[in-house]
Amino acid sequence: MAGRFDGKVALVTGASGNLGQAAVRAFASEGAKVVLVGRSTDDLIALIDELGGDPNRFMAGAADVTDPASMEALVRQVETRFSQIDVLAHTVGGFGAGQPAHEAGIEIWDRMMNLNARSVYVSCAAVAKHMVEKGVKGRIVAILSKHAYGGVAKAAAYSASKAAAQRVLESMAAELGSKGINVNGIVPAMIDTPQNRAASPNADYSKWVKPEEIAEAILYLTSDAARSINGVSLNMYGQG
């Protein structure tokens, strides 16, 4: 049975993380060639081996998703290996909160903006440039947060960074839609990961969103079935 992504190349950033791994497995199950991106290739190679290790289907790429030169170099490597990139699933992000802005200092601002806004701007722009130059009718999806919609006490930097990332995606959707490139975001609330469970030991985890559910939404938004969806932030709040 043919998969939804047979013959297509999907690039997944943060591929060694909880959500990134779920996305890699989902794309692989649907026939895609998958480029796994992270700072170190060790964990990526282990996941590729788990999935069969086929060099014709999988590639591990070390890159800094906040560095334009690093991402541009990665894109060139993928072009050499697989010719083009049809899909970008950007799952990189970070959380930092716990102090009001007047106590937190500037370090948390710089860290959140770098992880959550700059990484989206740099990674999505690098892949979009490739798609435009190659004439690829591509799909770009990045993970946001419900904090993008409004400020939250003791999380000013995090909320601002996610709002900035959302504006980047919306702007790119307006820029690229006429070229056949769709850009969308997914907005989860609490994701059911070991780290989040450890931070909230008394929570009802059954109400949280599972990485596999987000991965399936990524597949939908990057599939041909969603060709008319552009500039959308898809809320996935679970039952919490």
Tell me the fraction of residues in β-strands, as a range: 15-25%
Largest sheet: 7 strands, parallel
Question: What form results from the Cα inertia axes?
Answer: globular
Strand and helix order: EHEHEHEHHEHEHHE
First-residue to last-residue Cα separation: 36 Å
Q: What would CATH call the architecture?
A: 3-Layer(aba) Sandwich
Our count of helices gives 8
Structural class of the helices, strands and pairings?
alpha/beta
Helicity level, as a percent range?
A: 40-55%
Low-confidence stretches: none
CATH topology: Rossmann fold
The name of the CATH superfamily reads NAD(P)-binding Rossmann-like Domain
What is the tally of beta strands?
7
Q: Trace the largest sheet across and list its strands.
A: 3-2-1-4-5-6-7
Whole-number count of domains: 1
- Mean pLDDT across all residues, rounded? 95
Which CATH first-tier class would you pick?
Answer: Alpha Beta
Q: Write down the Rg.
A: 17 Å
What can be said about this structure in brief?
The chain has 240 residues and is α/β, with parallel strands linked by helices. The chain has eight helices and seven strands. It has helices at 18-29, 42-50, 68-82, 101-104, 107-134, 156-176, 194-199, 211-221; strands at 9-13, 33-38, 58-62, 87-90, 139-143, 182-188, 233-236.
